[in-house]
Amino acid sequence: MEFPTLEQVVGHTPLVRLKRITAGRNNVLLAKLEGNNPAGSVKDRPALSMFSEAEARGEISPGDTLIEATSGNTGIALAMVAAMKGYRMLLIMPESASVERKQAMAAYGAELIEVSREGGMEEARDLADTMIAQGKGKALDQFSNPDNPLGHYRTTGPELWDQTGGSITHFVSSMGTTGTIMGVSRYLKEQRSDIQVIGLQPEDGASIAGIRRWPSEYLPRIFEPSRVDQILDIGQYEAEHHMRRLAREEGILAGISSGGALAGALRVAEQVENAVIVFIVCDRGDRYLSTGLLAPEL
User: Fold this and answer.
1) Which residue numbers delimit the Tryptophan synthase beta chain-like PALP domain (predicted)?
2) Active site residue 52
3) Does this model's pTM top 0.90?
C-alpha cells in the first residue's frame, strides 16, 4: 500500500454550504475551508508551488537559506515546506503579528526577524530586499513570483469548478499578495468568461490581517487588474463582526480576513439572484485567539 507524503495532501479542501447565514434571492453561499490545509491556510498552496517550481528550475536546493517578508500565513506555510524539504528559512514580519503566528513559524524551525508596527509589511519587504542584495539568502518573493498564482491556477481553481459542478457564478476573495484571486480568476474565466471575480481590500483606516491596500510602489507585480471584475472596500468592524458570525452561526472558526470575505459575499448576494457565490475562508481562527478578536461583542 502506498501512503501520501505531506505535500501530496496540500489542497483538496472542503467546500461547504452555509446553513444559518443565508444570502436570500435563491442564492447559494459556499465557503472554501482553506484552514484544512496541513499548515492551516490557503498559503500552503503557493508556498509549495514556489518551492517546487524553483527546485525544478535548479534555482534552489536543500540546505539553501531563503528570506521572505510575510504578515503571517505565507510565513507559516513557507516554514512548513522548508522543514519538509530541508531549507533554512528566515522570515521578516511586523511585530504586530499575533503570538500564535510567530510561534507557529518558530515551531517549524524558521528564524524570525521583526520590524516595527509602524513600518509594517513595507518595511519588512524592504529589509528582505536588502538582505538578499547582501547575499544573506535567496528569495522566493511571493509578491512578484508567478509560481504563487500558478499554485492556485493548478489547484484552487479546478477544485472550485469541480466541487460546484461548473455552477459557480461569483468568486469572492480577500486581496493581500493577490496570488489567490489571480490564479483562481485565470482558471475560472477560462472555463466560463462570465463568472464574476470580486476582490476585497480594507477601507481607509482599517487594519485587517490578510487584506491589504498597497501603496502604488509596493503593489504586487503578480497583480493584473483586468482579472478582477469588482473591488469592494471592507471595514474593520464589518470584518470582525462577520468573523464572529462564522464561528457562532456556522461553527467555522476562522480569521478576520475570512470575516471580510463573508461580508463581501453577502454584499454581492444583495445585488444578484439565483447565484452560486463562493468565498475563501483563508485560515483557522485558533491563530488569532490571543488578539481578543473572537471574544463576544460588547
Assistant:
1) 7-283
2) no
3) yes
